[in-house]
Write a structure and sequence with these properties.
There is one protein chain. By secondary structure, this protein is of the alpha/beta class. The protein has one domain (6-208): Rossmann fold (3-Layer(aba) Sandwich). Helix content is 55%, strand content 11%. It has 8 helices and 5 strands; from the N terminus they run βαβααβααβααβα. α1 packs across α8 (194-208), α4 (100-110) runs antiparallel to α5 (115-126) and α4 crosses α7 (164-180). Bound molecules: thymidine-5'-phosphate. Residues 13, 40-41, 72, 98, 102-103, 106-107, 159 line the site of thymidine-5'-phosphate.
């Protein structure tokens, strides 16, 4: 059995990730594939509890940057073993809404934690699950942040409450990572329309996985 492809989506808040992921999953289904969709933090029963703690728990403000890092890593470690690896081994494609690059950037760059510590914890959490392709939806921080705040209304989460400079650092961190790993990370301009972004993603998949249509 051929291993499935593992595609991850990254980007800062409001970049339109969820919309594009749902379109891609639908397009893959139309091509006869049976993709698994995951989100982080979350994606498993344990992971969703961690997500709630990280984003909305009344005590979340007390979390240190170190505990935050370990909670994201714990959620991912569970997701990898429970869902991602079994799916890939069964030949299914996995489309992930965020993966290890989110930790590299949000905790390593945004929170300023030691990049080497973040790298080692990430490696331990993901084990052999490495993305075949990462799609970075790039959008300027102010536009993205304004969109995200509008979308979540009164339910703004801990990250969305960060100052704009945090999201600017996140954006530049992502772009630098894409430059360092051009074979894995493809940058797509997320300032255009939904259909144009979707077309760019389709073209990217055709070029990276020729003949992926079953
Ligand atoms: P999202 O569901 O809108 O993608 O939000 C998830 C939030 O969690 C977003 O602000 C990014 C943040 N995050 C981290 O800080 N580190 C991580 O490892 C992950 C997966 C997400």
């Amino acid at each position: 059995m051929q291993r499935g492809k593992f595609i991850t989506f990254e980007g800062s808040e409001g970049c339109g990730k969820s919309t594009q992921i749902h379109r891609l999953v639908e397009a893959l289904r139309e091509r006869g594939l049976d993709p698994v969709l995951t989100r982080e933090p979350g994606g498993t029963v344990i992971g969703e509890k961690i997500r709630h703690l990280l984003q909305y728990d009344s005590e979340a403000a007390r979390l240190t940057a170190e505990s935050e890092l370990l909670l994201f890593a714990a959620s991912r470690a569970q997701l990898v073993r429970e869902l991602i690896l079994p799916a890939l081994e069964a030949g299914r494609w996995v489309v992930a809404d965020r993966f290890l690059d989110s930790t590299t950037i949000y905790q390593g760059v945004g929170r300023g934690l030691d990049p080497e510590a973040v790298r080692r914890i990430n490696a331990f959490a993901v084990g052999p699950a490495r993305p075949d392709l990462t799609i970075l939806l790039d959008l300027d921080a102010a536009t993205g942040h304004a969109r995200a705040v509008r979308a979540s209304g009164a339910k703004e989460d801990r990250m969305e409450a960060q100052p704009l400079a945090f999201f600017e650092a996140v954006r530049h961190g992502y772009l630098a990572l894409a430059e360092a790993e051009p074979d894995r990370i493809a940058v797509i301009d997320a300032s255009t329309g939904i259909a144009e972004i979707a077309a760019a993603i389709t073209a990217l998949l055709e070029s990276r996985f020729p003949g992926y249509v079953t």
